[in-house]
Amino acid sequence: MSGKGKQASEQTLARRIALLDRLPVGHSPAAGRTVGELTDYLNASGFDCGRRTVERDLEAIDAVGSVWRGIGVDLQQGMDEDDARVPRWSHTPNSKALLFRTLSNEDALLLSLVEQELKFFMPASAYESLMQYLKVSNRVLSMHANQPQAQFRERVRVIADGPALRPPELNMPHLQEINEALLHGEQLDLAYRTARSSGETAYRLHPVGLVKQGLFFYLLAVKEENVHKRAPGPVQTFRIDRVRRVARRRQEPVARGLPSLEAALGNGQLQFFDKGKIALRLRFADNADGQALCDSYRETPMAADQRIVKRGDGTYELQATVMYSLQLVRMLQAEAHRSYVVEPKALKDEIAGFVRQAARLHLVS
């Protein structure tokens, strides 16, 4: 190829890449770009071209068997809403090309795992971008040579602690709307129904963060009526599966001085009904079950200052500063046959009352 021919080919390639980058992802075909708009853009970007050149570029890219289709480009046309004679061009949903970056099998596996585990923490805009890459990722993993990676994807899972309960149904648009509000620092309007209520309660919220704990996703936020003070708060939790409607308050930023998500979690927000910090003293049963529980706490401490000391009678005692919360109470209730609370007295009495009530129920039945 002559120098002039090579230069022309490179110019054509650069122009078509710029054209593709300008095209939006069209969930509605009518939301695309017209040839006139694309021509104006390309000329403003330094490409000297006319409408017919742009038309030929689009036809070449969209042709069956073109190299562009081979790397994932899939264009669509829709007619302009005001003038049905004017076509608009866009990428089809989930198909905006990776252009000249070819995914390796490891890249494809990574994207697939990210989609499985992190899709709930993505704004709609970010998830849409991920889906554009995921289409190519799935194609790569479907190749026979990449069978090990495809099989690995089916052999790993994150599962919730405890019994194999079925998590509640999640409304993905609700999650995505909440994530969009977090991304843009905007307020939310929420319609919420608790487990014991048949009606809905409307809230105007200032989101702090989104958290997954066990089977559930929680929005942490401050209510509108609680932000007009020197230190906005408290942070409250809203389970996502109980949300009935949610909408961003576009262009309405959250209040200044909101607690950070880290601060809210550090204050025990998701431990529920927090009664403050206590100096816990917990003793273990003098048997194999008690020793196994003691060993478990050595491997997974309850707090940074946890100590496990051996007593004069050969038994063991755990000492730690922890949050007195519903989660702590439920954990100690589940372990009441292997350990018992020495201090504080309020917690000891609560667990003892639970044990007596459980004994009466099971012995009577």
From TrEMBL:
One Pfam family here: WYL
Query: Sorted alphabetically, which InterPro entries does this protein's record hold?
Result: CBASS_pafABC_assoc_protein (IPR051534), WYL_dom (IPR026881)
Q: Which PROSITE patterns does this UniProt record tie to the protein?
A: WYL
Question: Which segments constitute the WYL domain?
Answer: 173-246
What is the protein name stated in its UniProt record?
WYL domain-containing protein
Protein species of origin? Massilia agilis
